[in-house]
Write a structure and sequence with these properties.
With 124 residues, the protein is an alpha/beta fold. The chain is built from five helices and seven strands, in the order βαβαββαβαββα.
Length: 124
Protein backbone atom coordinates (compact mmCIF):
# COMPACT_ATOMS: atom_id res chain seq x y z
CA UNK A 1 0.00 0.00 0.00
CA UNK A 2 1.31 3.45 -0.90
CA UNK A 3 2.21 5.55 2.13
CA UNK A 4 1.40 9.27 1.76
CA UNK A 5 2.89 12.04 3.90
CA UNK A 6 0.73 15.17 4.25
CA UNK A 7 2.60 18.50 4.22
CA UNK A 8 1.15 21.95 4.61
CA UNK A 9 1.25 25.12 6.64
CA UNK A 10 0.70 24.91 10.39
CA UNK A 11 2.62 27.70 12.11
CA UNK A 12 0.56 30.86 12.40
CA UNK A 13 -2.56 29.25 10.94
CA UNK A 14 -5.82 29.07 12.94
CA UNK A 15 -5.98 25.77 14.82
CA UNK A 16 -2.57 24.95 13.35
CA UNK A 17 -4.43 24.03 10.15
CA UNK A 18 -5.08 20.66 11.81
CA UNK A 19 -8.65 20.47 10.43
CA UNK A 20 -7.26 20.52 6.87
CA UNK A 21 -4.73 17.80 7.76
CA UNK A 22 -7.41 15.54 9.27
CA UNK A 23 -9.75 16.18 6.33
CA UNK A 24 -7.00 15.32 3.84
CA UNK A 25 -6.20 12.19 5.83
CA UNK A 26 -9.83 11.05 5.74
CA UNK A 27 -9.99 11.60 1.98
CA UNK A 28 -6.71 9.78 1.33
CA UNK A 29 -7.70 6.82 3.53
CA UNK A 30 -11.01 6.58 1.64
CA UNK A 31 -8.99 6.46 -1.58
CA UNK A 32 -7.07 3.47 -0.20
CA UNK A 33 -3.79 5.05 0.90
CA UNK A 34 -1.85 4.59 4.12
CA UNK A 35 -1.44 8.10 5.52
CA UNK A 36 1.13 9.82 7.70
CA UNK A 37 -0.55 12.90 9.12
CA UNK A 38 1.94 14.91 11.22
CA UNK A 39 -0.96 16.44 13.16
CA UNK A 40 -1.42 13.00 14.74
CA UNK A 41 1.90 13.50 16.50
CA UNK A 42 -0.05 15.80 18.81
CA UNK A 43 -3.04 13.49 19.27
CA UNK A 44 -5.22 10.80 17.74
CA UNK A 45 -8.14 13.17 17.18
CA UNK A 46 -8.40 16.79 16.10
CA UNK A 47 -9.47 17.80 19.60
CA UNK A 48 -6.58 16.00 21.33
CA UNK A 49 -4.07 17.34 18.81
CA UNK A 50 -5.26 20.92 19.36
CA UNK A 51 -5.16 20.50 23.14
CA UNK A 52 -1.62 19.13 23.02
CA UNK A 53 -0.23 21.79 20.66
CA UNK A 54 -1.59 24.85 22.43
CA UNK A 55 -2.68 27.84 20.40
CA UNK A 56 -0.71 29.29 17.47
CA UNK A 57 -0.27 32.41 19.62
CA UNK A 58 1.06 30.37 22.56
CA UNK A 59 2.55 27.11 21.26
CA UNK A 60 3.64 24.52 23.80
CA UNK A 61 6.79 23.66 21.77
CA UNK A 62 9.02 25.45 19.29
CA UNK A 63 9.28 24.97 15.54
CA UNK A 64 12.53 23.00 15.75
CA UNK A 65 10.86 20.42 18.01
CA UNK A 66 8.17 19.82 15.39
CA UNK A 67 10.42 19.63 12.33
CA UNK A 68 12.78 17.21 14.11
CA UNK A 69 9.81 15.05 14.91
CA UNK A 70 8.11 15.23 11.51
CA UNK A 71 10.97 14.95 8.99
CA UNK A 72 11.95 11.36 9.87
CA UNK A 73 8.37 10.27 9.18
CA UNK A 74 8.56 11.70 5.67
CA UNK A 75 11.61 9.57 4.91
CA UNK A 76 9.57 6.39 5.29
CA UNK A 77 6.78 7.47 2.95
CA UNK A 78 6.34 6.74 -0.73
CA UNK A 79 4.89 10.10 -1.80
CA UNK A 80 4.20 13.56 -0.39
CA UNK A 81 0.83 15.32 -0.64
CA UNK A 82 0.98 19.12 -0.47
CA UNK A 83 -1.92 21.01 1.04
CA UNK A 84 -2.97 24.46 -0.21
CA UNK A 85 -0.54 27.26 0.67
CA UNK A 86 2.22 24.78 1.47
CA UNK A 87 4.70 27.14 -0.18
CA UNK A 88 4.03 29.82 2.47
CA UNK A 89 5.26 27.46 5.19
CA UNK A 90 8.90 27.13 6.22
CA UNK A 91 8.31 23.54 7.41
CA UNK A 92 6.25 22.36 4.42
CA UNK A 93 8.77 23.94 2.05
CA UNK A 94 11.56 22.03 3.79
CA UNK A 95 9.50 18.81 3.61
CA UNK A 96 8.93 19.45 -0.11
CA UNK A 97 12.65 19.97 -0.72
CA UNK A 98 13.53 16.77 1.19
CA UNK A 99 10.89 14.80 -0.73
CA UNK A 100 12.13 16.20 -4.03
CA UNK A 101 15.74 15.55 -3.02
CA UNK A 102 15.13 11.87 -2.26
CA UNK A 103 12.99 11.39 -5.36
CA UNK A 104 9.52 11.04 -3.86
CA UNK A 105 6.61 11.75 -6.19
CA UNK A 106 4.90 15.03 -5.30
CA UNK A 107 1.11 15.27 -5.30
CA UNK A 108 -1.71 17.59 -4.38
CA UNK A 109 -5.20 16.62 -3.24
CA UNK A 110 -7.65 18.30 -5.60
CA UNK A 111 -11.39 17.62 -5.69
CA UNK A 112 -10.93 14.39 -3.76
CA UNK A 113 -8.20 13.03 -6.06
CA UNK A 114 -4.46 12.73 -5.62
CA UNK A 115 -2.99 14.58 -8.61
CA UNK A 116 0.70 14.78 -9.54
CA UNK A 117 2.29 18.18 -9.11
CA UNK A 118 3.31 18.05 -12.79
CA UNK A 119 -0.32 17.52 -13.83
CA UNK A 120 -1.42 20.46 -11.66
CA UNK A 121 1.14 22.72 -13.38
CA UNK A 122 0.14 21.43 -16.82
CA UNK A 123 -3.57 22.11 -16.22
CA UNK A 124 -2.98 25.79 -15.31
Amino acid sequence: MTKVYIAGPMTGVKDWNFPAFFEAENTLVALGYEVVNPAHNNGDTLELALEDAGSPDAPKRDWLYYIRRDLPQLLYCDVICLLPNWDTSKGATLEYEVAKGIGLPIYKLINGELITNEQVAKDK
